[in-house]
Amino acid sequence: IPRRGRLQKRESFALVKGAVLLVEEGEREGLNEETLPSLLGPRQGGRASDTQRRHLHAMISLLRPEDTVKLAVRLESVSPVRVRYLLIIGTLNQKQESLLLGMDFPGSDSDECTIGLVLPIWSDTQVYLDGDGGFSVTSAEVTRIFKPVSIQTMWSVLQALHGCCERAVRGAVIPGCGLEWAQHYRDNVESDQQCLNEWAAMTGLESVRRGTGGRSSLNRESVEKDIKAQLRDIMRTEDLENITSKQVRTALESRIGIDMKDYKEYIDNEMMVTMAQMDKPSRILDYLYLGSEWNAANFEELQKNNVGYILNVTKEIDNFFPESYSYMNVRVYDVEATDLLSYWNNTYMFISKARCSTHTHTVMVYLTPYEIYCLCMGVSRSASTVIAYLMKQQGWTLDQALNHVRERRSIVQPNEGFLKQLHTYSGILNCPLEEEVQARNPPAICPQRSSHRE
């Protein structure tokens, strides 16, 4: 899409129903129907309508030349006519500052839009599921609620927001310090009062339903178990680009027979966990994948990736196919007090053994739903184990290994206890005594592979 102004550059976007994603320079080559889902999230694809393309052109025309759309998602509206988008905007500076823009179209056929919301992303910005099919963003004590038009688009924007918040923390983008360019957009807020009111509050979309009786007296644990089972079946069979969280709740109410008003937050969290699990495993090295419980339970996917060895770094999940794959289990919880370091020599040997397999099998390291990033949690145990392997195998520093894994799986976030252990492990690997031990007892490595220690 040609850009106006002094930059005169062209940018590529991936457009699907309900969402628009900027395709970075390194991602453009080889972009096709198969790679598109990995950019926008699991099970996403399809083609954008001409209306969406026109809307994108109109929204870009309101940006400064040095700013760009990182992601745009369509939101629900109380009006049956108006069309609303939430944009994540980035600019060219060292801090990689970001802000949210709300865009209003008077109708789907309109080629003109106005700005109705400007919300900077600061280092204290927090994102939460609102328990009613959307999410809230609190930034500098200002809270706004957004409801994407589908589960799929909500997943896409949550992942993008997670990255923006992390960059704001790393860049120390403190409220009142930086983001001066946001004033340009504040000066150009021109949406009418009805649109401004909707950006300020969306109480009109609150879902309130009468109790249906029946099994309402069942204990919460039993109901949540039923919800989880039925939810997975719904998300496995429905088109996630065309179903909202509220529609999922309605389906759950029909299947289970009770009012789901008291379970909104639980349902939204479980949906995001399931979405994360449904994503494809992340290829860390040619022979090493980091995936989810969902991936490890997908026999066809395991076969497609030629997986022969599975490293299960969980205490909650059993091995799914013990008759078909070689497993190593590290049965620990994801808490800071867990001693994970003592396992890393053995996990290194296990992965090295898989690498040397005569059948050139790959290894999958998988994690539990509790480790999936969903607003407040991150990949921890399994990621730490993979990072430790890369430090030893590749001769990388902790920062190099951590950055490599995050580039391939952006939700990675070892807990503080595991980060301290990784620092300790880095010191052990760089200790001369460690080199002598390695020389006397070389690990099981493939003869054809060279490393910094051979």
TrEMBL record:
Keyword set for this entry?
Answer: Cytoplasm, Cytoskeleton, Hydrolase, Protein phosphatase
PROSITE patterns found in the cross-reference section: DEK_C, TYR_PHOSPHATASE_DUAL
**Tyrosine-protein phosphatase domain: from which residue to which, for each copy?**
280-431
What reaction does this enzyme carry out catalytically? O-phospho-L-threonyl-[protein] + H2O = L-threonyl-[protein] + phosphate
Q: Where in the cell is it found?
A: Cytoplasm, Cytoskeleton
Which positions carry the signal peptide feature in this UniProt record? none
Q: What is this protein called?
A: protein-serine/threonine phosphatase
What organism is the protein native to? Cyprinus carpio carpio
